[in-house]
Amino acid sequence: RQVGYAVIGLGELTLEELLPAWAVGKRSRLAAVVSDDHDKALRAARAYGLTEADAYSYDTFEELQSRPDVQAVYIVLPNSLHREYTERAARIGKHVLCEKPLAGSVEDAGAMVAACRDAGVKLMTAYRCQYTPLHWRARDLVQGGDLGSVKLIHSVNVQVEPADGQWRLKRELAGGGSLLDVGLYCLNTIRFLLGTEPTSLWAQTHSTPGDPRFGEVEESVTWVMTFPGGVTAQCSCSYGAAHTRTLDVYGSEGRLQLDPAFDYTNLNLRVHTPEAITEHRLKETDQFALEIDHFSACIQEGREPFTPGEEGLQDQRLMDAIYRSARTGQPVTLDAVPGTDAFR
Ligand code: NAD
């Protein structure tokens, strides 16, 4: 049996990546679509084998309660709307898979974790990269000692955000700028690769003066994190530089390079040692299908997802600390206990 999903939000990610992913997934099926644009909802429903009865609006969302074939919802809305729809889904007893970042603020992310816990439904942060075999290979190499002792990590995630008035440039809907949108990949992938939490960080932000895109949210952020064992990670993200997504890990015996590191396809993993360069090529499977199927397996087998809501909340706290450091010009010491507010 497959887990049935309602997808909320029919924007670019849903139309281009997620709707096709359900067709690939083995444990998951698309059962309903939810949008404020009825025509778009109907078109999407019909294109993927559903009927008019499977197309809901934001106002009729609660009617999904009477659909036992819909066990989960996938929230794919602007960041600051994730909380409202998570709480509404939890109230009608549906499990929640929520796009990254988990929310527009630490407070909202915490409320989402609490709402799902209290309602007895699962909450998973949609960190697709943590479900791809190549990222797991990279993690095995880092944690298995293939690079010797890890010293430095550099990661960059940049893209040019057009000035078309979309929600990503509006603080109220996005919660922040390039950090919440693309810098988050550097942050959570480094935590995933190392399997530890940073103990301190330092950051600065920059926005081109007079650029109308960056009146409400920041253009670029650079930050440095220190991890246990003396690992230093330096990350940069921007909405003003041409598409680049890289991650490099430097160890005493070699260097691991992911380039591109966070794209949907054609990820590249290389390990450089003084003796050789080794390319790690693995069969590519749709990243979104792997992620959705993982959540379905957790629902079917009654276990916690690898990236639960708490994981998204932890990143949200760290991004908050990054903004705080940039604002004050001071380093922030982190009492690195995941799931607590100890470092705030
Ligand atoms: P988008 O702008 O293409 O789509 C957003 C959808 O939300 C649209 O259907 C729009 O109609 C709807 N919406 C509802 N209320 C809205 C409002 N008040 N303002 C604007 N739109 C509103 O965005 P997207 O790229 O699909 O991103 C949606 C979510 O998915 C975001 O949280 C984003 O961070 C995340 N995302 C994740 C990945 C990934 O690789 N995991 C990639 C892209 C986007």
Automatic annotation (TrEMBL):
Family affiliation: Belongs to the Gfo/Idh/MocA family.
Boundaries of every GFO/IDH/MocA-like oxidoreductase domain copy: 137-256
Key words of the record: Oxidoreductase
The protein's name: Glucose-fructose oxidoreductase
Entries under Pfam families matching the protein: GFO_IDH_MocA, GFO_IDH_MocA_C3
Domain of life: Bacteria
Residue ranges constituting the Gfo/Idh/MocA-like oxidoreductase N-terminal domain according to the UniProt record: 4-126
